[in-house]
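Tokens help. Our protein:
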Amino acid sequence: MGTTHKKVAFHTLGCKLNYAETSTIARQFEAAGYEKIDFQEAADLYIINTCSVTENAYREFRKIVNRAKRQAPDSRIAVIGCYAQLRPEAIVAASVVDLVLGTREKFNLLEHIQFAGQGDQALVIQDAQIDEVHGCIPAFSMGDRTRSFLKIQDGCDYPCTYCTIPLARGKSRSLDPDILVQQAHEIAAKGVKEIVLTGVNVGDYRFGDNLVLLDLLKRLDQVSGIDRFRISSIEPNLLTDEIIRFVAGSSSILPHFHIPLQAGSDRILSLMKRRYAVELFEDRIRAVRELLPEAGIGVDVIVGFPGEGANEFDQTYSLLESLDISYLHVFTYSERPDTAAITLPGKVPLPERKMRNRRLTELSSKKHQGFALRQLNRSTQILFETWQGGVLSGMTENYLKVQVTSSKQELVNTIAAVELTGVKNQRLMGKLSGSSTDHF
């Protein structure tokens, strides 16, 4: 497949890590002479980076493939990523694709695509067994003027019974901090102001004999040109007092923690094979609040896990209601092949799962509203991301969306002090102020 005037389009499903990897692969194609276009346009080649976390991700994948073929019937379609690793045969059987690449080969897509679609069937590149996948390929996203996702780690050693990610990405492995610092400088040279540190299990970052996440944060904190580093997510058992203290004293590591809980019942946490109990989770929230009273704290939670009766759900609800957190990401449990949880007794009916999701989603709205209201009459730093119709929109350090009425479109991709004056539709409203402030 020659590259002259060839158009390629990308679509990413799933997490920030997938976005970082898609962006890196896209740059490979552009360097080879392809023209990158929007996925809604007619392309010669469509590349879909898949997710294996939820059943909805697979349903969305099928819709995307069908849409691409309607837009450009003669196009080729390549499928990469986690679902491609786990279910390559299902992808080929259920959709018209030309190439399927799993974990080990996805960064070699450019080399494989020239051989794709030469026969009547898709060329499926089967990876080696996932435990034979080694190394951590660097990746970061570009394209958003204000923010970049930087991959620091891949894979996971945790045996959570509901999760397919270790099956799709392999064992935990991390990138050389020298490479990451170099990439941070490269991102800074593009004018990007914020880097989000991503991975499968970011808190498990470890390189060499004794380098851990705290050491990487200290290195990145010295990178000039990047005003903000944000930790995407960190397991409660890996969120150490030392990390919290460092963030509290840092000028660039933001006061925002996303900490997975998954269940507020020790019995359910045990069935999930999580590596902590409720007491430890509560302690980590308290530790953050002691040093960073206005830090943003997000929490992941799963409803409807097998064995979660009414009492266990009530324990989860009561715990989350009592904690000083900012918002929730609520996931409805879905059965995933090859996971241990699929064989557990006590299946929760789907209507009950949905009801529990609604209740926690409503609680999340209340938490978010309360957290936003308590920021009022403060001056804080906003990284402005967009300007539309006389309104600037951006994010606080502690992960709240703020809108400011202003004609100053040139403030996009700058950080400015804003007085927070009100809340409308769960978004903070503010006005530009004339002075800068430090961390909360």
